[in-house]
Design brief:
This protein is an all-alpha fold and 212 residues long. It has a domain at 1-97. It contains 14 helices and no strands. Helix 2 runs parallel beside helix 4, helix 5 (72-78) packs across helix 7 (90-97) and helix 11 packs antiparallel against helix 12 (166-179). The longest helix is centred in the first third of the chain and has 14 residues, at 49-62. The protein is elongated and about 55 Å long.
Length: 212
């Protein structure tokens, strides 16, 4: 533990150039081998966006089921960072770790599908498309969250594909990909409505769909 603490302390002291000696992937290897994730916190909370985003990338590589809740609060707070690179990387980790009781965190992920940065928007949409149903079960607000659930109605989805509300429209896309990924006729109908950027995003989600 002393080794990783010293490495992180040096990076926090000298700045992003500290990664020249230890790359983020090399640091991630410490955590892949079981290093305490709390030692990553100084990177996650650092004021330099390059350091913070590197820390979030490391976290995204090593958290998983049963591991990562100890840094969940720090990752969640990063979703509010003004730098889009810092907001981007925690999305997958927060989506992976969130449970049904984490309503504020899940609602924040939903707002990010309308983020001003296209990379953040798309990352949030991808992961809303694959969050387990059990994690979404506690969400009641906004009501259109129902578009993500298994009982989503095709007619409702078709209406929301045309909505001027960016969050509603993109929730409908995620819901369609979650619940009707094998209904090729319906997906074709959806694609005919979507703009080119949204069509490209559908292709990304199709590669990530899981049975939740």
């Amino acid at each position: 533990m002393t080794v990783i603490r010293d490495i992180i302390k040096n990076i926090c002291s000298v700045g992003p150039s500290g990664f020249d000696s230890y790359s983020p992937n090399r640091i991630a290897n410490f955590y892949r081998r079981g290093e305490n994730l709390r030692t990553l916190v100084p990177l996650l909370t650092h004021k330099d966006p390059q350091i913070a985003s590197a820390g979030a990338w490391i976290a995204s590589e090593v958290v998983g089921i049963g591991r990562g809740r100890e840094i969940f609060d720090e990752l969640f707070q990063m979703l509010y960072n003004p730098d889009p690179a810092v907001r981007f990387w925690p999305i997958s980790a927060v989506a992976c770790l969130a449970t049904a009781s984490d309503t504020a965190e899940l609602q924040k992920l939903i707002t990010l599908i309308a983020d001003e940065n296209i990379g953040v928007r798309n990352q949030a949409l991808r992961y809303l498309g694959v969050i387990p149903i059990s994690s979404l079960s506690g969400l009641k607000d906004p009501p259109i969250v129902r578009l993500l659930l298994p009982n989503a109605n095709k007619d409702d989805l078709l209406v929301y594909f045309k909505s001027d509300n960016a969050i509603a429209r993109r929730l409908a896309i995620a819901g369609a990909m979650r619940n009707f990924s094998d209904d090729h006729n319906f997906l074709s109908e959806m694609l005919a409505i979507l703009n080119n950027d949204e069509k490209n995003e559908v292709k990304e989600i199709q590669r990530m769909i899981i049975i939740a």
